Amino acid sequence: MKRLTRFGLAAIVTVGALAMLLALKTYADVTPSIAVNVQNAGPRQVEDTTERAVARDYAAAWQAMIKALDQNRTDILGPGFIGNANEKLAATIADQRKNGLRQQIVDRGHNVEAVFYSPEGSAMELHDTVQVQLQLMDGSKIVHSGEATIHYVVLLTAAENSWKVRVLEAVPSF
Amino acid sequence: MTRKTWKTFIPMLLLAGLSSLEMAQAADLHVPSTVTAGSGLTFSSSGSGSATLYLIGPGTAVKRQVELGQEIQLSGEDLQNVGRYTVVVGDDSAVFFVTAAPVNSIAFLARPSRVPASTPNVISGTAFLFDKYQNLVLQPTPVKFELDEDGQATTRTETSKGGVAYTKLDSARKAGPAQFVATSGSGSVRRVVQQVASDPCNIRMSAQPDKNKILVRTDPIRDCSGNPVPDGTIVTFTATDSQGKSTVDARIKRGIAEAELPASSGATISVASGVVVGNEIQWRGGQ
């Protein structure tokens, strides 16, 4: 009985540790689930295929950003970011690398609304309310940690065969 | 107070104490809630000795030593990008936002680059407003759209919303290049929209014998505003007789289209371009 209890305890600890390791390793690899409300977008109406493409590409961009800020890599930003947004993220990552910092972001979900879709269909503005857990790491030390609800104004442009984030600006409110 | 009441009261007291302590720590960094892009920021801290300052925001990740109890400065260079910043000094932290500076430049999408003349709401202009640090300017700002053709200007002013303003304008009656300009603050961008003739208004042709063929030729082809339809536009001539139908596609050249049809003693000849059908000729062997 005693041996069984010890075995059970060891199993629980092992499974727990594995689960924690798995969670730590993969949280940056999980594509955030994003649904876009396009009912109030204008002046052009958002087509169904565009709505799906925007949700898919914006989610992928967030996944890449989370990974890039955690691992201080700029090479994974390209497919999702362009222009100002890409340059600003690259600058953040360069500074982080220089100072031995990194950011860990746990994405807890997005509430996205398309508010503008240009008449010729090449640009779209989104309002995204994101729930995140943020951690600023200096080496292995947690410098700052907290949960936050952040409002983002996002400008997407149609490039090649996907939507790319051109502007990503956090604002106090919409 | 009974023992039971004390049991409830003491933890509450402790919680309240802890919470006020946390507030006091947070209040130790007196940081304004918003700052304009590019303008620096000075804030005070309490305590003594040195501590590490961290500043994390869009385009920046600063780490440096600061002296507590003295004023701490963040340079305008560190705060050029609009967004949410977190500043951490020792155990204290604060969040503030940087907002855009005034409009300095415009990204202007003008569509289409070629447009048929005399068509309502066919030219669209979308202006995205940026400050000198390339931040999207979210404050509502007037944007003037002007479509100028040979000194005849159509002007419309729209107020931006979320950094974007757009308009739709009619094309002019006359074909030719038009300057489409968007202006806001110190930013101004010009695009050229080429206005071309619309579909032909009507097509009139004549026919004459030419050796063993029939030579058909249109009058100059114009749209309903009198603009010559561009060279290269396809005009189709069709001759139908007892032996069947002959069709020739010809391009407009110097304003007119012409073609040679097989000779026939009796045929009906018609002409069309796009959805516009011209006159019909009953051909009686050259009469």
Describe this entry's structure for a reader.
The complex is a heterodimer of chains A (174) and B (287). By secondary structure, chain A is of the alpha+beta class. Chain A has two domains: 1-30; 32-171, Roll (Nuclear Transport Factor 2, Chain: A), CATH 3.10.450.50. In chain A, 38% of the residues lie in helices and 37% in strands. Chain A has three helices and five strands; from the N terminus they run H-E-H-H-E-E-E-E. Chain A has helices spanning 2-26, 48-71, 83-99, and strands spanning 36-37, 101-117, 123-138, 141-159, 162-171. Chain A is globular and about 60 Å long. Chain B is mainly beta and 287 residues long. Chain B has three domains: 3-99, Immunoglobulins (Immunoglobulin-like); 105-196, Macroglobulin (MG2) domain (Immunoglobulin-like), CATH 2.60.40; 205-283, Immunoglobulin-like. The model of chain B is unreliable at 8-27 (pLDDT under 50). The longest helix of chain B has 25 residues, at 3-27. Chain B has one helix and 22 strands.
Salient structural properties:
heterodimer, A: 174 residues, alpha+beta, Nuclear Transport Factor 2, Chain: A, five-stranded mixed β-sheet, 5 strands, 38% helix, B: 287 residues, mainly beta, Immunoglobulin-like, 3 domains, 22 strands
Explain the layout of strands and helices:
The complex is a heterodimer of chains A (174) and B (287).
Chain A lengths: L1 H25 L9 E2 L10 H24 L11 H17 L1 E17 L5 E16 L2 E19 L2 E10 L3
Chain B lengths: L2 H25 L6 E3 L4 E4 L5 E8 L2 E8 L3 E4 L8 E7 L2 E8 L5 E7 L2 E3 L6 E8 L11 E8 L2 E8 L4 E6 L6 E9 L2 E10 L8 E6 L2 E6 L15 E8 L2 E8 L6 E5 L4 E7 L2 E8 L4
Parallel strand pairs in B: 1-7, 9-15
Antiparallel strand pairs in B: 2-5, 3-4, 3-6, 6-7, 8-10, 10-13, 11-12, 11-14, 14-15, 16-17, 17-20, 18-19, 18-21, 21-22
Rg result of chain A: 19 Å
Give the distance, in angstroms, between the N- and C-terminal Cα atoms of chain B.
Answer: 125 Å
Largest interface, Cβ cutoff 8 Å = A-B, 39 and 38 residues
The stretches of 5 or more residues of chain B where confidence is low (pLDDT under 50) are: 8-27
Q: What is the H-and-E element order of chain A? A: HEHHEEEE
Q: Helical proportion of chain B?
A: under 10%
Query: What's the CATH first level of the largest domain in chain B?
Result: Mainly Beta
Strand percentage of chain B: over 45%
Total domains of chain A: 2
Round the Cα radius of gyration of chain B to an integer and report it. 37 Å
Number of strands of chain B: 22
**What is the C-level CATH assignment of the largest domain in chain A?**
Alpha Beta
* Biggest sheet: strand arrangement of chain B: 1-7-6-3-4
Total helices of chain A: the number is 3
Count the beta strands of chain A.
5
Q: Which strand-content bin applies to the residues of chain A?
A: 35-45%
Q: What integer is the average pLDDT of chain A?
A: 87
